[in-house]
Amino acid sequence: MESEFTPPFGKITKIKGQCISLIGNDIDTDRIIPARFLKCVNFDALGESVFEDDRKTLKGRHPFDLEENKNASILIVNSNFGCGSSREHAPQALLRWGIKAIIGESFADIFYSNCIAIGIPCFTLPKKSIEEIQKYCDNQVLFLEIDLKKSLAKSKDLNFNLKIKESSRKMFLSGEWDATSTLLDNKDLIENKFNQLPYIKFNTNLL
Amino acid sequence: MSQDTLFDKVWDLHKVSSLPGGSDQIFIGLHLIHEVTSPQAFGALKDKNLKVKFPERTIATVDHIVPTDNQNRPFKDNLAEQMIETLEKNCSEHKIRFFNIGSGNQGIVHVVAPELGLTQPGMTIACGDSHTSTHGAFGSIAFGIGTSQVRDVLATQTIAMNKLKVRQIWCENKLSKGVYAKDLVLHIINELGVKAGVGFAYEFAGPAIDDLSMEERMTICNMSIEGGARCGYINPDEKTFSYIKNKLCAPKNEHWDKALIWWESLKSDENSIYDDAIKLDASKVEPTVTWGITPGQSISINQQIPLLDELSPNDKLVAEEAFEYMSFKPGQLIKDTPVDVCFIGSCTNGRISDLRVAAQVLKDKKVSKNVKAFVVPGSEKVATEAKQEGIDQIFKDSGFQWREPGCSMCLAMNSDKLIGNQVSASSSNRNFKGRQGSPSGRTLLMSPAMVAAAAINGKVSDVREFIN
User: Fold this and answer.
1) Per-residue pLDDT for chain B (468 aa), expressed as one digit of tens each?
2) Which of A199, A200, A204 best tests the B interface by mutation, with the highest count of B CBs <10 A?
3) Sign of torsion, CA B10 B11 B12 B13?
4) Among A183, A100, A202, which Cα is nearest to B19's?
5) Residue A90: which residues within 8 A CB-CB, separation 6 or more?
6) 10-29 of A, contacting B, C-beta below 8 A
7) Rounded to whole angstroms, how far apart are CA atoms B57 and B157?
8) Cα B183 to the chain's mean position, in Å?
């Protein structure tokens, strides 16, 4: 899987893929990637360790271990997914496992911004719709086609109007989700701001 | 939409531009880094051929991976050694001030920055760590960021972010004896839920908050994120100013006078508008202990673990998971639960006042034979102060191991870990599954005083019985 990994790049307008459903509220980033895997200076090897402890506990029955989910790329989750630690290692591990988009009832703030920053769109749907998808996934494989322009998810049997923050949607459509260059465009404004801040002047002892 | 709150004032002041997508570009006044979430950010700078824009506005220390028993270099753990070496190299290459082990100023990043007087009202503060909210105790707007955003701050001193809504949490009356800031914040998270804060900054206010010391206020703001709020803050007052005064990096002389006038002006206006406001009575809070796998699953020391029927449908799912993982039964009392490990430390409760309170409980008492107890000071300064006060000796005499500063078993990235399904009484901030280093380890969060009481009795106890 690692050798095939290419990070997302540029405009993201459509995502097609098989869904993988993970049931549970408040699934924290320690569970997505336990702290011992944070002892690394790059993210390359994280994919195989995603949900390591949960997977070991379930001895092969965890959704991320099921043969039929091997090629899945759209993760379906419940509420407050990604709470806890700010570790970007969590979405990086999901990305490297093969996840390209996440649909859930709700997401924790820092996890959400980390996902956006690395090119994983996160969409929300009401609890009822998520449960409908999760039920469907219990019995059969669900392929979804997500259209970011229309915020729509389509499949053979199910259609959903997805919600996503307008700022995130626009960034994916324009390809500006990798924020550094957009931020750098305002070099002069940054300098001006620096010079205007009152505390820069009276903090002569900062260093 | 909120208006004229401290959050609004500080946000507007730091806004560099409105970005095309609708989010804001925000200037970061103080950037704190550590060894775990920064190496990939420096790597990305290199890939993009970018420099650190304002190296003097980033401060580094090492905390997550440091061993707390023997800190001689090279570390026994090769990976940990590689991480500290990478940070040393990145800091020296980019001319970033680094408080290394032995500098006298190393420690948990959220303990160190306030100690140095770096954390000040009205600043925006970011760090690749979710407990950055701690610094909000000074009336700064402080939040955790991921590694890509660490890269952005290094390269531009700004990040792209949507403005948060503001919820005021008004705490009436005062905490009673034997009840601490940790109990109050666990109570707040339990009342509001672990995701109520998503999209919000929390403003903690009211007589109970005014009454808290700066270190207690840090405990409150530290755990905002456990209630889902990326940012939590408290309006600055005389306590804030006198805490900062004379610290190494505090404004001096005529600068101090100017700073005071400006800091005063930052407080939320009396008629400011909040997106939401709630009130609670702090005098009703009792010593609080978590029983589950989220920081919201807590009860008072004399309460029973809830029955499933008492919970909302949304909470049931996680409660069922918690019962299974923790081997607790609905309706069971939390008091007298045997504990195997007692841990005092972390960015939540590893400051000198936390150690003082625990030492008071431990004085002339012995840790139970069945318990492994250890205390990890939040910083080298905390350790030094504790030694000067003889607190280290009280801990040692009682049977606690006295360790070197670091994050330690809060997240168990070093060798301090639970084994098997051990139960820990912990002054840290997260009771997630596997958080303290064993995939089946169980964590009960509580105040440092309550951890000390649990250590003596070998089981969850009411600290009020120790302080008459």
Assistant:
1) 999 999 999 999 999 999 988 899 999 999 999 999 999 999 999 999 999 999 999 999 999 999 999 999 999 999 999 999 999 999 999 999 999 999 999 999 999 999 999 999 999 999 999 999 999 999 999 999 999 999 999 999 999 999 999 999 999 999 999 999 999 999 999 999 999 999 999 999 999 999 999 999 999 999 999 999 999 999 999 999 999 999 999 999 999 999 999 999 999 999 999 999 999 999 999 999 999 999 999 999 999 999 999 999 889 999 999 999 999 999 999 999 999 999 999 999 999 999 999 999 999 999 999 999 999 999 999 999 999 999 999 999 999 999 999 999 999 999 999 999 999 999 999 999 999 999 999 999 999 999 999 999 999 999 999 987
2) A199
3) positive
4) A183
5) A29, A32, A33, A82, A111, A114
6) 24-26, 28
7) 8
8) 14
Nearest Cα neighbor of A83 from A23, A127, A31, A38 is A31
Q: Are B168 and B205 in contact (CB under 8 A)?
A: yes
Q: Look up residue B20 and give its two tokens.
A: 């095309």
Q: Report chain A residues whose CB lies below 8 A from the CB of B411.
A: 30, 35, 85
On the question of a cis peptide bond just before residue B74, with omega within 30 degrees of 0, the verdict is yes
> In this complex, is the C-beta atom of A58 within 8 Å of any C-beta atom belonging to chain B?
no
Measured CA to CA, the distance from residue B428 to residue B436 in angstroms comes to 10
User: Pick from A87, A189, A200: which is nearest to B30 by CA?
Assistant: A200
Cα A16 off chain centre by:
15
Give the DSSP per-residue string, B23-76: -EEEE-SEEEE-TTTSHHHHHHHHHHT---S-GGGEEEE--SS--SS--PSSPS
What ipTM did this prediction achieve? 0.96
**Residue with the two structure tokens 């324009």:** A174
